[in-house]
Amino acid sequence: MTAIHEKNKVAAPRPETGRGSKNGAEAVSDMNDRALGLRGDFPILSSTVGRDKLPLVYLDNAATTQKPRSVIDAISGYYERDNSNVHRSIHELGERATALYEAARERARLFVGAESADEIVFTRGTTEAINLVAYSFCAGLKPGDEILLTQMEHHANIVSWQIAARLFGLVVKFVGITDSGELRLEDYERLVGPRTKMVAVTQMSNVLGTVNPIAKIAGIAHSKGIPLLVDAAQGAAHEGIDVASLGADFLAFSGHKAAGPMGIGVLYGKREFLERMTPWQGGGEMIRTVTLEGFEPNDLPYKFEAGTPNVEGAVGLHAALDYLDSVGTDWIREWEKVLSERAIAGLRSIPGLEIFGSARERGGIVSFEVPGIHAHDMAAFLDSRGIAIRAGHHCAHPLAQRLGVVSTARASFFLYNTLSEVDFFIQTVDEARRRLS
Questions:
Q1: What local confidence, expressed as pLDDT, does residue 437 receive?
Q2: Extended strands (E) in 298-421
Q3: Which 3 state secondary structure label does DSSP give 136?
Q4: Rounded distance, CA 32 to CA 25, Å?
Q5: DSSP for residue 316
Q6: What structural domains does the chain harbor?
Q7: Which residue spans within 334-404 are E strands per DSSP?
Q8: Strand-pair category, 6-7 with 354-356
Q9: What averages of pLDDT result for each successive group of 10 residues across the chain (437 residues)?
Q10: Using an 8 Å Cβ cutoff, are 170 and 143 in contact?
Q11: Which residues contact 10 (CB under 8 A, 6 or more apart)?
C-alpha cells in the first residue's frame, strides 16, 4: 500500500500570522475575535444538537457552508416582494424578478473576473456545470480525442467526462499524484498530446486540501492550444477566483459551498468556446425560434439555461458573494490556514493517527484516520459531542484507492470557526481513540 499520510510527527509551532507591529500570537488572537464576531451573522451556529442540547461545532464546511442572515433575508425578501418568472413577463413583478436575476449574474461576473456577463451561466451547482461542458464541448470532438483529468478529482469531474467518453468515443487519461498529495506536473508534459482536447482539474482537493498550481497547469495546456476547466467548488469561497490570473477557460462553483443557497451554481466559460458549443438541454428560454423542422438557439448565456431558472437561488447567491467580499477572501484564506495548521499540529500528537496529504499549499481541509476505528464510527462519536464532520470516500473513489483506504474522517473549516472549536475537536478525536480502539 502506498498511502499518502503523516504519522506521529513532532507538533508544528503555531503559525506566525499577522502584519504590522503585532506578533503572531496577537494577530491570531485578533483573527479569532473577528471569527467570534462573524458567528453572530449565522443563526444556525447558535443552535444546539442532540438530546443533551450540545453547542453545535460545525466542521463540515467542505460539504456545505452555513448561511448568513443576509442570505436568508434576501431569499425570503424575494418571495415576499418580488416573486415572478423572469424575462418574458411584462408586468412589474416580472420586471423586478428579472432585474434581480440579471443583477446576480453581474455579481457573479465580478466575483470570478469575467469580461462579460454573457460568459456566466447559472446551473444547479458545480456538478451540473461540469456535466454541461462535458456534453456540449465533447459533442464537437472526434472519436479518439482525449480528456486529461487527475487522480484527485471529485466524481463530478471524472464521471461526467467518462459518460461523454462513452457517448463520443473519447479517451480519458489521468495525471498522478505524489506521496505528499501534490499533482505530478511532469505528467502533464508527458500526457498532453495532439489528441488532447480538454484539461480539467480541481482548484482544491476536497480530501487532501491540496491547492493546485492552476496558473502553471493552464500555461502547459495553453502552450498546446488546449482549454482548461477548473473545478472551483472547494476554492471559490476560500482561495478566491480570478479567471484571468488562473488562466481558466471554464470554471465552475456551487453557491452552497460559498455561504449561499443550495441548488444554484455558476459556470464561467470563455465566449469563444460557449458560442460554438451545442445546447445541453432543450426547452423554454434557450431558444430563439422553434419550428416543426428544428430550432435556433438563443444568445449567450441563455442557450444553456433551459426552463424556469432558480431565481431565488441567484438572489441568495448575490447576497452570499456580497458577504464574502465584505469579510475578504484573503482574510478567509489566512484564517483557515491558522485553523488547519492548529488542527494538524494537534492531531499529529495523537498516537497512531494518520493525516492524509502534506502538500506545500493546502486549504482548510484535514482528512485523517485512526487505525482500528472506522471513519463512520469516528464521525458518530464526534457527533455525540456536538461536532459535525464528514466521513466516507468524499465522492473521490480513485483518490481513496490511491491512498489505500476505504474511507476517511474529514474536518473542514470556514470563516466562522474558532480556535476553541479546533481544540475541542482535537480533544474529542483523542477521546474517541481511547474509547473506541
A1: 83
A2: 354-356, 365-369, 387-388, 390-392, 408-412
A3: helix
A4: 10
A5: H
A6: 6-59+329-436 (3.90.1150.10), 70-325 (3.40.640.10)
A7: 354-356, 365-369, 387-388, 390-392
A8: antiparallel
A9: 37 40 86 98 97 96 98 98 92 96 98 98 98 98 98 98 98 97 96 97 97 98 98 94 97 98 98 96 92 94 96 98 97 98 98 96 97 96 98 93 94 98 98 94
A10: yes
A11: 348
Do the beta carbons of residue 330 and residue 205 sit within 8 Å? no
**CB-based contacts of 319, cutoff 8 Å, min separation 6:** 68, 70, 71, 73, 74, 75, 260
For cell 487505525, name the residue: 371
CA dihedral 343, 344, 349, 353 (to 10 degrees): 110
Omega of the bond leading into 194 within 30 degrees of 0 (cis): no
Residue 32: the pLDDT is: 98
Hunting for cell 482525449 — which residue is that?
146
Q: Which positions are catalytic?
A: 395
Cell numbers standing for residue 298: 438563443
Q: Which of 248, 249, 229, 207 is nearest to 62 (CA)?
A: 207
State the residue for C-alpha cell 475541542.
424
**CA 184 – CA 193 distance, rounded (Å):** 16
Which amino acid appears at position 320 of this protein?
A: A
Length of the chain: 437
Packing angle, helices 311-327 and 69-81, rounded to 10 = 150
* C-beta separation of 389 from 409 below 8 A: yes
pLDDT in the model for residue 88: 80
Task: State the Cα–Cα distance between residues 398 and 410, nearest whole angstrom.
Answer: 17
**What whole-number distance in Å separates Cα of residue 122 and Cα of residue 111?**
14
* Burial track 264-278 (b if 16+ CB lie within 10 A, e otherwise): bbbbbbbeebbeebe
Do 160 and 112 form a contact (C-beta atoms < 8 A)?
A: no
**DSSP per residue over 22-54, as a string?**
S-HHHHHHHHHHHHHHHGGG-GGGG-EETTTTE
Q: Can you give the pLDDT at residue 240?
A: 85
Q: How far is CA 186 from CA 32, 167, 177, 360, 371, in A?
A: 40, 30, 10, 17, 33
Concatenated DSSP letters for 54-106? EEPEE-BTTT-----HHHHHHHHHHHHHT----SS--SHHHHHHHHHHHHHHH
